[in-house]
Amino acid sequence: MEDILGEGWDVYPAGGATGEAFIAVNDKQKLFLKRNSSPFLAVLSAEGIVPKLMWTRRLENGDVITAQHWLNGRELKQGEMDKEPVAKLLRKIHQSQPLLSMLKRLGKSPLRPEGILTEIETNIEQDILNIPKVSQAFSFLRENLLLIESNETAVCHCDINHNNWLLTDAGKLYLIDWDGAMIADPAIDLGSLLYTYVPRENWSDWLERYGLSLDAGLEMRMKWHAISQLLSFIQWHKSKNRLEEMAALIERLGYVLES
């Protein structure tokens, strides 16, 4: 990594699950570097959804390195996820035609509920399926599959965890880590966010700030997608032997099912 920056730079890992992110620092500048980011990053930068993209360089081995301007700030706290700036930025993302056009050019096609269910059923391990709450969740997904079909599609982040929201010291909000972005029903993002961070009695107010009214159809779509995402995350944590995190997600699955 130092070879493409020149002398005077210190480079160290930025953390994260992929191990492909780095921080580069010299006397005058600080950059966030990532190996093999999607071309989608340029459009996200142009839309003001992620920090500014400074440059892109291709290495001799074919890897592509992107550099973004480093901004001092912090991740959002869980209690801040029900605030208006989060709703406004998520609405901007879901309504963005440049984002949608770019994902389509990259070969993404809309992710439908039946495809989501098939993928989860294919990948989940039998010992997880034997857990009563997981079995109950699959029954819910199958029984309500035909009720949550929607013609509404948008670019969805698909992992709106509070630590993916960056609030800069200047008060600018960004949503980062777009590796899992999909074209899908925006209820994927909405359901995960509301069930995780917003008390049920505040859903109508939050959705009003986002630009929607809560009705039975939207509520069913959000619940279905919240459950499907939890099942995917449970399997992912199991595959990484993160059993404590997996157990916490199973407890949250029970809460969503009972809501």
From TrEMBL:
InterPro entries: Aminoglycoside_PTrfase, CcrZ_PhaseVar_Mediator, Kinase-like_dom_sf. SUPFAM superfamilies: Protein kinase-like (PK-like). Residues 15-212 form the Aminoglycoside phosphotransferase domain. Signal peptide: none annotated. This is Phosphotransferase family protein. PANTHER family: CELL CYCLE REGULATOR CCRZ, PHOSPHOTRANSFERASE YTMP-RELATED.
